[in-house]
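fyi for ur records
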Amino acid sequence: MFTDLGAYAIVPALVLLYGSILLALFELRRNRALVWLGRRRFWGIVFECVACPPFGVNMVRHITLGTRIGEPLPLAAVRLLDAARWAELRDQCVSRIDDAIQLVAEDSMEHEELEAQKQRLTDLASCA
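which gave:
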């Protein structure tokens, strides 16, 4: 782009960039990958992708926001991670729960729920 041929390369580069964006958006709409979005929200995403390339980052973000995973993180971690990585993740989760426990009153319902959640994580230690 910064050579003598730059003037000739800019048009094909723009056609390639925006052509791929429009083609991807057309395919997503045709395959109903964004069916959970309303018409107005879809056109907002189209504008965002055209105005703010790279569109791939925007598409991945929007599609994953609409995808809900039914399996809780600890159960997925037990199933997918090896023992060492599961132990590391579990320790991080327990640490965050301990931090949250310190912020709530001891006699509150939230305190009991956090303690129960911590106990469930501790019980999952034997599953890995």
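The CA atoms of residues 19 and 103 lie 52 Å apart. thats all i got for now
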